[in-house]
Specification:
Radius of gyration: 35 Å
Largest sheet: 7 strands, antiparallel
C-alpha cells in the first residue's frame, strides 16, 4: 500500500508539472510564430532621376562654351527683324565655330513630325515628344542629305538626327498647348514674340542634366 501511495504521489507530481508547463509552451509557440511572420520594413531607396534631355552637340558635354548674346534665348542685343523692333530670340543658336560641323543630336526623345524647307528656317526637323514638348532643329542643314531621320521615325535622346553643315543650328523648344504653328502649317508661330510660346532650350536641358546628377 505504501509503494502504491508513493507511485500515485509521483504520478500526481509529474501531472502537475506537465500541466504547469503547457501554457508556457503555448506562449513560447505564439511568440516564435509572431517572430517568424514579422516582416522587417526596409528603408526605401531614393528614386534616381534619369536625364531625358541632352545637348545637341557632343562637345557641350565636355566643354563649357560661352555663347554670344545674339545666340542665346530671350532678349538680346541683336535686332531680329527690320520691320519690327524686336530683340527677342525664340531659340538657341549653336554656331559651327563653337561646335564644329559635327553631328546634331536629339535633345529629347520623340517622333519626327515633319521635315521641310521653309524660307527663313531653311531645312528643318520638327519633333513632337510624348510628354508634350516640341523640338525644332532649323537653319543648319544645307542639303536634305544632311538629315539622317525620316518623317514618322521614333528618335531617342542623343540619336544623330543630322549633321550641321551651315553656319549654325537654331534649336527651338515649345509645348503642344502653345500657338507655335503659323497659318502655313510651319512650326514658327509667334516668331520674335516674347509671349511664352517659346521656351529656353538650354535652361530645360541644363536643369534636367543637373537633376540627374544629384
Amino acid at each position: 500500500m505504501k509503494k502504491q501511495g508513493k507511485i500515485f504521489f509521483i504520478i500526481a507530481f509529474i501531472a502537475i508539472i506537465l500541466f504547469a508547463c503547457v501554457p508556457l509552451s503555448k506562449k513560447n509557440l505564439l511568440f516564435t510564430k509572431h517572430q517568424s511572420t514579422h516582416k522587417v520594413n526596409k528603408t526605401t531607396k531614393k528614386s534616381v532621376h534619369k536625364a531625358t534631355w541632352g545637348y545637341p552637340f557632343e562637345v557641350l558635354y565636355h566643354k563649357n562654351i560661352k555663347f554670344k548674346s545674339g545666340q542665346k534665348f530671350g532678349e538680346t542685343d541683336v535686332l531680329r527683324r527690320p520691320d519690327k523692333q524686336s530683340y527677342f530670340h525664340d531659340g538657341y543658336d549653336f554656331g559651327f565655330s563653337e561646335v564644329g560641323h559635327s553631328p546634331v543630336l536629339a535633345v529629347h526623345a520623340g517622333i519626327v513630325h515633319k521635315i521641310k524647307y521653309r524660307p527663313g528656317m531653311g531645312l528643318y526637323v520638327w519633333v513632337i515628344s510624348q510628354d508634350g514638348y516640341v523640338e525644332i532643329y532649323q537653319e543648319g542643314f544645307l542639303s536634305i542629305t544632311d538629315i539622317y531621320v525620316k518623317k514618322g521615325q521614333h528618335i531617342k535622346l542623343g540619336q544623330k538626327i543630322g549633321k550641321l553643315t551651315g553656319s549654325h543650328i537654331h534649336l527651338g523648344v515649345t509645348k503642344t498647348d502653345k500657338h507655335y504653328i503659323d497659318k502655313h502649317g510651319d512650326p514658327c508661330g509667334n516668331w520674335w514674340k516674347n509671349n511664352g510660346t517659346w521656351l529656353n532650350p538650354m535652361k530645360i536641358i541644363k536643369d534636367d542634366i543637373s537633376e540627374s546628377k544629384k
